[in-house]
Amino acid sequence: MKFKRSLALVLALTLPMAAQAHRFWVLPAATVLSGDDPWVTVDAAVSNDIFYFNHFPLKADFLSVVKPDGSTGEMLNVSEGKHRTTFDLNLTEQGTYKVLMDSSGLRARWETEDGERKFWPGRGEKPEPGDFEKKVPKQAKNLQVSHSATKLEAFITAGAPTDTVLALSNQGLEMKSSVHPNDLFTGEPVELQFFMDGKATEGVEVVIIPDGMRYRDSQESMELTTDSDGKINVEWPRAGRYWLEAEYGDDNAKAPATSRSGKYIATLEVLPL
Amino acid sequence: MKSLKHVLPLALLTGSFSAGQSLAADMQLSVAIPEMNVAEYHRPYVAVWAMNKDDKAVTNGAVWYQIDDDGEGEKWLKDMRLWWRRSGRSLEVPIDGVTGATRKPGEYEVSLTHVAQQLTPGDYVLYVEAAREVGGRELLSVDFSWPSDETQTLSAQGDSELGAITLTITP
Asked: Residue span of the signal peptide, if any (chain B) (predicted)?
């Protein structure tokens, strides 16, 4: 819990507002592997230029690995450079692995009697359990409490794809694909469905950007919004790796929060047929 | 008065000025930076330069980039790819009278008097290149001859990162 909260804080400080958002991503060197004992190296970074490391490493502390059986995997040879974190995975089990970043937490803003604006957690503050109750005055003027959740996923499969790591946690914004995320091919459209706190949600804004942006003049982003079933249809313009980011927010929050927001990020690899 | 003295000998030498005309052959550029309806907006970097068609020599008109204390904003200068190749990579920024801060969307009048003062007679291309973080890149150009006997208005229209650009050359 402490880990989750401190990550939420770091994200909150890194992302003070949407206008200054940074893009987070994890990039496996390969997502489809064969053999009994394959290895794959994974990079993790914070950088607006998709799949080019030029800003900050996405720290390994924020990441975890889930093995095909649902247990926690080990990140090997972890190294943090100026612009990226790198680690290896040894895929000793057959099936689908997941690299995951999962954070969530509360944030509050209010005004004092004198009109001074306050917020919690404060800059550089690591919230401890119970801090919200202690530090946020519940009767304050214009009190706004928001719950935000960020989830990042990348999938890697040795052998045949499996579904255990695809199960939804029903927390924050999540995605379900009509085709296994390690079985994406050109010419095969997929239906992606988005869930906020476990419920299929309309109005989720999804941006999908193909790799190679250094070699073209525009982002070439696909911008889609989920329908009443929480779905979008995606046709892959070409083979390659894609960065997907989905965002959603509303006021259907659980107390003490008055609003909730979710962000979901995935790296998807589409192979040519 | 200083600029008059500077220009007068050139005018006499080239014979391009007749009585009654302004003595200051000049260039002026208008550049439009379009409004973007996007979630995350960063102001574009913009470079304006003239290239001599014969010797490929570049005369810089303007370079707008994020100028900050730690020089971090220089990191994206290379995203103006053509300008970086033709000129930027061999320059030390900032440059007086050329570099400046990025601009918000709008239409800007950019004096190219300092460019006009450096050009020798010949054929040129004026380039305007824009690159925006989390956005795209666009390059526009207009051909012109220098100097000109008459006032000329040369335009190009962008469709992503730039709006219209209009180069006005006065004899």
From this structure: 1-24
